[in-house]
Write a structure and sequence with these properties.
It contains 5 helices and 13 strands. It is mainly β and about 260 residues long. The longest helix has 12 residues. The relative contact order is 0.15.
Length: about 260
Amino acid sequence: AVMAVEVKGWTFSAKKFHMMESRCSCAKSNDGATCMFCKYSNSFDFPLPCEVFANNTLKIEHRSGFSLEFGSFDALRHVMKDANGVKVACTADWLASRPNTHFLDAVKPYDWTYTTSYKGTVDPDAKTVPAPERIDLESLKAQEPILFYDDISLFADDFGDNGLCYVNVRARAMPSGFFVLLRQYIRVDKVLVRLRDTRIHHRFGWPHVLREHTVREGSIADVVKNLHPLHLDEHALYQMDKIPLIADCVPLVAEECDALVL
């Protein structure tokens, strides 16, 4: 499915298709073209996640030429190779909790949680400057007509049925402006919860686009303790619709803010 909407000099377009095949399908091509699975497999030096939505994209373009785009290829291109040593420690904890499970190797040369530093694909000519202000999340709660909305999946993996990694991007455009949330949710069962969020906001008429990136991470035990005041328990970590509630219960470990000049 393809959708495009133009609002006040901005074009919002989304493409959503089924997930990529998990094996080579070059033989099905009539023109000898390389299949999407082989294009991805040949581009990365680590096994692909079990679900990759290679044809899903979200693109936001301004009439000036400025653009923002979100896709699975660039998201995977930013998968962290080491994740600052967290990978090894978490792998050891995970294996200790499951002594009879051997599908995971602690010395794999890639971050098996697929943690990505991806913040979206920005127009290479765009200038980045310090953010003049923070995104006012309260103002975004105001009731406005929704002129464009979509929720796009980029990739996912279940770590052999022992957790979850899910990356998606949601965007909405209103008469006042637009807001984007790119989110990676990672849950390694009995070990940790990790959230990497990129929020992007623009009010029509501003000369810039605000961007904020946060990293949250905590042990399952600590996050569950923080859930208790909300009358939630560990089961909430397994429910996708509860992730917005869970987010503030995961300790904030890093944050950065900037602005992209139009």
